[in-house]
Specification:
By secondary structure, the protein is of the alpha/beta class. It has one domain: Glutaredoxin, CATH 3.40.30. 34% of the residues lie in helices and 23% in strands. The chain contains four helices and seven strands, in the order αβαβαββαβββ. The protein has a seven-stranded mixed β-sheet with strand order 2-1-3-4-5-6-7, with helices on one face.
């Protein structure tokens, strides 16, 4: 009998892990970053701590990826991610991503231009006020949320 139980432990573990992802309600986030970016890794940790499953991909340059996915150069940041049909550029909070997925606006995605101190992955002294913007394929933007220190 103990041997039979031992045979099913890996199967049950896999079932519980898959069920946990399904229960979280959040789709997997595909993150593209450069191999040496520490703040990108911290942003990934922020997403995972907030229930997202993340697959990370290192590239030597993200310029072509950003361009081919409509990220305006003036709004770019250090990493680009994709979740459920949306582009996520920069240090967007997990809560903003959850709201985006809940509301499903007709936009290409969300962006936090630059790397504001105080955004997820960029924690530090003297946090800044910053906006999370929506952007469209036509390059139009609007404020999605504002974060205060």
């Amino acid at each position: 009998m103990p041997r039979l139980i031992a045979m099913f432990i890996p199967v049950l573990t896999a079932v519980f892990l898959l069920a946990g992802e399904a229960w979280s309600g959040n789709p997997e986030v595909q993150v593209y970053k450069t191999p040496t970016c520490g703040c990108c890794s911290k942003w990934i940790e922020h997403l995972e701590a907030n229930g997202f499953s993340v697959e990370s991909h290192d590239l030597p340059s993200l310029a072509a990826l950003k361009r081919s996915n409509g990220v305006p150069r003036s709004l770019s940041s250090c990493h680009t991610a994709f979740v459920d049909g949306y582009v996520i550029e920069g240090h967007v909070s997990a809560q903003d991503i959850e709201r985006l997925l809940e509301q499903r606006p007709t936009v290409a995605g969300l962006v936090v231009p630059g790397m504001p101190i105080g955004s997820p992955g960029m924690e530090g002294r003297n946090p800044q006020r910053y906006d999370v913007l929506t952007f469209t394929a036509d390059g139009e933007t609007s404020v999605f949320s504002t974060h205060q220190p």
